[in-house]
Write a structure and sequence with these properties.
This protein is of the alpha/beta class and 747 residues long. It contains 28 helices and 26 strands. A hairpin with an 8-residue loop joins strand 1 and strand 2. It binds ligand MGD (2 copies), iron/sulfur cluster and molybdenum atom (MO).
């Protein structure tokens, strides 16, 4: 009999960018249920099936609870000491023999959702010092980051649509009713979208598929994949041609207006029409409605990033926000002021260095680095191509690039040929099956959380901290400790280095960075006084306390009585609401000019490529992706409650295309691109534009050696076998995962 009484705990959900506040009901150490926290200051009780499935993840027998070590080709359970010893023996000789670049590092999406990993993966990356550093970023938001860095000065200066006050919203290439939002942390987004329409506002969705989001909108425009930049630039052309510019308060803060007008002069709606599939008259109407709305926001996401013109489309989104006077004003698109700070709250306000690209190039194809990352599409060739500098060792942290990156099948083969691979992960899956050592993270219930990263992109400024629900299991390590330990090994400090000292060293490095600003609170107090003020906490809790207290809402280590600190946050378990986003221009800018660059040189250099875009051919098929509410990229397919019902890895196709190709609903179809082929069941639906087919990513759970038994029973196929590795978005190195030319026929 378990006589323990029921307890309730709060935990911020780490499974998507919405960061909902959850309530976990426990009896002793047993999870009874997980639901929404109605009092959470940001999410107000919203929860989705993935959040509820935190119980299933916590209990999943396939979830790793001890390190794995490859012995005679088999991944067996091992102790932490032997695991770290193996890492030392496996990686150090490669570094000594071939140099730092011979070990590559991939930081995956799960790292963005973990407090431990998001704060401490820098300890690993810094110690490794490899140029072959990459992440999920180049299959995701890199184009947006390049665009905003050029326009506003930093890679995270991303304007956030003010959903709760806007009267007119354009959504391009995003399906937040399935994804719950991205670069837009707005839990319960369905409710927020409904409220726009209830207050008389208007929502227009641009997507080649009639998604749930499109169905919830006032208007759905089925534009041609990859043509967002053509459409948006034609809309900008209309604003100039019809004298509809309304910069308002932004007027003194912009550069490049005249250049922009000249650059878009030829890009008329008539030019765009055959390229994007939207009639010229409709482009004019849409542009006028945007310009005339009392306030409006343009928002673009995955569909506008992971495509051939990702940077141009991402740039055009914010140019439209600016030209219509909606940038940096309530009801438009604004910058956040995160409680834990940001690169756009650090240093001198209003001016900065701006971005620098191409400090080095990849060895094999000479692709320039972007924000110190190389495209993840380059990994396989760096591992396979002989010669000095060849990658022979690999570390993954919270990522599954075999399923998530273009040409994953080739990467799969390349991983099999590595000398040594280490994964920090929670499953033996398609990627980690190649590792020599797997170091497992903990269940979300066994670690504290503060969403340092995603609060950078939230629709309101809030501060929320959840303490760990359960104590860490006996003998287990938290992931920040794993990062420090790996960092210590790679820096040559040995696998027994004192973790406390490594942690303090890491903290002091962060403090030193903040202290570069002599007028800032950290610079004025000095490192020793700051460390002392932070007291006895260790690890991420201490770091969060540091970021909060030195941040824009902080207590400045006692100077500001009502300011934020971790202690203060602990008194508010449902979080502290800091209010809606407020205008920050010009203080937020970090460009060298101190202005918003409307026509940045780096970006407009890519316009000739767009000008050369040929009109869409009427009979070709192109492939796009999609997401499903009950799935998360490649890794939640092992949780039984999330995979009930219909098969999800289907090839969606319009009735017209299905008839033309002789494919019935449910029939197996062969999909072939220039890079590969897969066979998937057809799902005939009028919710997709003719000429477009759609497969979700993150499937293909049928490889030997994986230990995800539920996922294996509905394996699906890896859509990234079809994605090009050789052609990338040229400015960001981002993969082109949407708008891939394919042929489809009966299998
Ligand atoms: N075709 C196509 N491809 C895509 C996309 C697309 O739209 N279309 N989307 C892209 C995007 S946006 C992204 S972000 C990437 C994502 O791709 P990846 O970055 O590869 O991430 P996931 O597929 O989410 O896999 C997460 C990994 O982390 C592990 N994991 C889960 N929780 C934890 C934890 O707490 N700690 C640790 N250490 N590991 C954990 C899981 O087991 C899994 O191996 O996929 C990209 N790939
Ligand atoms: N349930 C669930 N939630 C998730 C994830 C998940 O896998 N499952 N993944 C998380 C991650 S890592 C991310 S980055 C976010 C992404 O969140 P979103 O950006 O909302 O991503 P998607 O739901 O893939 O929506 C992209 C839409 O773009 C459309 N599209 C494709 N090509 C084009 C194009 O060229 N132009 C236009 N205009 N549209 C196009 C597709 O049809 C699709 O509906 O979601 C996050 N949340
Ligand atoms: S919407 Fe995202 S954050 Fe909220 S419960 Fe679902 S997975 Fe978790
Ligand atoms: Mo993503």
């Amino acid at each position: 009999m378990n006589a323990a009484r029921e307890t309730r705990h709060l935990r911020i959900c780490p499974y998507c960018e919405a960061t909902c506040g959850l309530e976990v009901r426990m009896r002793g150490e047993r999870v009874l249920s997980v639901g929404g926290d109605p009092q959470d200051v940001l999410s107000g009780g919203y929860v989705c099936p993935k959040g509820v499935a935190m119980k299933a993840f916590h209990e999943d027998p396939d979830r790793l609870r001890a390190p794995r070590l490859r012995r005679d080709g088999v991944l067996v359970e091992a102790g932490w000491d032997e695991a770290f010893e193996a890492v030392e023996r496996g990686l150090l000789p490669i570094l000594e023999r071939d140099g730092r670049d011979a070990v590559a590092l991939f930081i995956g999406n799960a790292a963005a959702h973990s407090l431990s990993l998001s704060l401490y993966n820098g300890a690993l990356a810094g110690a490794l010092g490899t140029r072959n550093f990459t992440s999920a970023g180049t299959t995701d938001q890199m184009p947006k980051q390049v665009a905003v860095a050029c326009m506003f000065g930093t890679a995270v200066s991303i304007p956030i649509p003010d959903l709760d006050r806007t009267q007119h919203l354009w959504i391009l290439g995003a399906n937040p009713l399935e994804s719950n939002g991205s670069l837009l942390t707005a839990p319960g987004i369905g409710r927020r979208l409904k409220a726009i329409r209830r207050r008389g506002g208007r929502i227009v969705v641009f997507d080649p598929r009639r998604t749930r989001t499109a169905e919830a909108a006032d208007e759905h425009v089925m534009l041609r994949p990859g043509s967002d930049a053509a459409f948006l630039l034609a809309a900008i052309h209309v604003l100039f041609a019809e004298g509809r510019l309304r910069l308002g308060a932004l007027e003194p803060h912009v550069n490049g207006l005249g250049e922009l007008e000249a650059l878009t002069r030829e890009l008329s709606p008539e030019w765009a029409e055959p390229r994007c599939g939207i009639a010229a008259g409709e482009i004019r109407r849409l542009a006028r409605e945007l310009a005339l709305a009392p306030c409006a926001a343009v928002y673009g996401r995955i569909g506008t990033c992971t495509q051939a013109f990702g940077v141009l489309a991402s740039w055009a989104v914010d140019v439209l926000n600016a030209l219509t006077g909606n940038l940096d004003r309530p009801g438009g698109a604004l910058f956040t002021l995160p409680a834990t700070g940001s690169i756009h709250t650090a240093g001198r306000p209003g001016r900065g260095r701006g971005p620098v690209f191409g400090r080095w190039r990849t060895r094999v194809r000479g692709f320039p680095e972007v924000f110190r990352e190389i495209p993840n599409a380059c990994l396989a060739e760096e591992m396979e191509t002989p010669g000095p500098g060849r990658v022979r060792g690999f570390i993954t942290v919270g990522g599954n690039p075999v399923l998530s990156t273009p040409g994953g099948d080739r990467l799969d083969r390349a991983l099999a040929g590595l000398e040594f691979m280490v994964s920090c992960d929670v499953y033996v899956n398609e990627t980690t099956r190649h590792a020599h050592v797997i170091l497992p993270g903990l269940s979300p219930l066994e670690q504290p959380h503060y969403d340092v990263l995603l609060s950078q992109f939230a629709v309101r400024n809030t501060a929320r901290f959840s303490p760990s629900v359960l104590p860490r299991p006996e003998g287990a390590l938290q992931e920040w400790e794993i990062m420090l330990r790996l960092g210590g090994i790679l820096a040559g400090a040995g696998r027994d280095a004192d973790l406390d000292s490594l942690d303090e060293l890491f903290l002091r490095r962060r403090i030193a960075m903040a202290a570069k600003d002599p007028e800032g609170i950290v610079g004025r107090l000095g490192a020793d006084a700051v460390v002392e003020a932070l007291g006895a906490r260790r690890g991420p809790e201490r770091l969060v306390d540091f970021l909060l207290r030195s941040g824009p809402w902080g207590d400045r280590f006692g100077e500001k009585e009502d300011g934020l600190s971790l202690d203060r946050l602990l008194e508010h378990p449902h979080g502290i609401d800091l209010g809606p986003l407020a205008p920050r221009i010009p203080e937020v800018l970090r460009t060298p000019s101190g202005k918003i660059e409307l026509a940045p040189e780096t970006v407009v250099a890519d316009l000739p490529r767009l000008r050369a875009l040929a009109p869409a051919s009427p009979d070709g098929l192109v492939l796009v992706g999609r997401r499903d509410l009950r799935s998360k990229n490649s890794w939640m397919h092992n949780l039984a409650p999330l995979v009930t019902g219909r098969e999800r890895c289907t090839l969606q196709m319009s009735p017209a295309d299905a008839a033309r190709l002789g494919l019935a609903d449910g029939a197996p179809a062969r999909v072939t691109s220039k890079d590969g082929a897969v066979v998937a069941p057809v799902e005939v639906t009028d919710a997709i534009a003719p000429g477009v087919v759609s497969l979700p990513h993150g499937f293909g759970h049928d490889l030997p050696g994986i230990e995800i038994h539920v996922a294996r029973t509905h394996a699906g196929v890896n859509s990234n076998v079809l994605a090009p590795r050789d052609v990338l978005e040229p400015l960001s190195g981002n993969a082109i995962l949407n708008g891939i030319p394919v042929e489809v026929g009966p299998a």
